[in-house]
Amino acid sequence: QVQLVESGGGLVQAGGSLRLSCAASGRTFSELDMAWFRQAPGTEREVVAAVRWNAWYADSVKGRFTISRDNAKSTVYLQMNSLKPEDTAVYYCAATIVLPIWDPIGRYGYWGQGTQVTVSS
């Protein structure tokens, strides 16, 4: 089965930057559509960004976050700049087997354990 392992979370000050990484194994990486989700205490899980070759972003992070993938390393990244306290959440890497038509905010069947991101004010 597909295994996803996130890393790179931590505590940063507002306005700072952080890069999250997600390493995938168990299937050819190019056969996976990837995404990042986040969930803050008391809130529903929300999709933040997704990528096949093109990228999709939630309105709340456009212009601040960048999702990218390195197929040679089977890794997807989330570069987070200009962080705000409201970005504080557990961030999850997600994957789905590619379909003929890309649906960046569609259903994802594989999940990592999550990495905590805390932004202080």
Compact summary:
With about 120 residues, the protein is an all-beta fold. The protein has no helices and 11 strands.
Features:
single chain, 121 residues, mainly beta, seven-stranded mixed sheet
What is the element layout, followed by pairings?
Blueprint: E1 3-7, E2 10-13, E3 18-25, E4 32-39, E5 46-51, E6 55-57, E7 65-70, E8 75-80, E9 89-97, E10 110-111, E11 115-120
Parallel strand pairs: 2-11
Antiparallel strand pairs: 1-3, 3-8, 4-5, 4-9, 5-6, 7-8, 9-10, 9-11
- Roughly what is the average pLDDT, rounded to an integer? 96
* Terminal Cα span: 40 Å
Secondary structure: helix percent: under 10%
Tell me the overall shape.
globular
Low-confidence stretches: none
What's the tally of helices?
0
What would you say this structure looks like, in words?
The structure is a single chain. The chain has 121 residues and is mainly beta. The chain is 0% helix and 52% strand. The model has no long low-confidence stretch (mean pLDDT 96).
